[in-house]
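Protein in question passed on here:
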Amino acid sequence: MKTGILSIGLLFTSNLAFADCKVALEERLKDDLNLTYQQFDQTYDAGFRLLEKSGCHAEAAILIKRFISHNNSKESSLTWHLAQMEGLAGDYQQAVFHAKKVLDPDEELSGSKMYWNDFVLGNIAFWNKDKEKLKQHIANIEKGQSFKPNQINLNYLNQLLKHFDLSYKQALSEA
């Protein structure tokens, strides 16, 4: 009997959270489409990040898509954040689709110290549940870990590897 009551309680709570996310998205759609890219994507208390902080990842993805469309935005960080929100929402197929769009075909020619493609491909490997590829991309980034952004991305991918059997959202929240 207790299990049934608990299940009903959890279902009710999750439906409330879903409803709250839908309401929050409608509110964000009223104002956020006219924010600057900087305000929408690079500010931690505005734009899609307000939905992200509330755990409304699917709605954050919708908001980012609408922002890109509304503003004809070309910034790759928007597409990357869209992929991350889709991953956090559990939509790995769409996360992979959008993540592939931010790969830099000229990364090796650029001379950059950043191992961006390995970071993105490491996330894709996680979403595809390919542990060996994830390990391979981690090993590549380890070569450049003296560059701080690579160290941050290495920590992120190691978190995914450590919690490989969990969802993307759970793996990243297990700190």
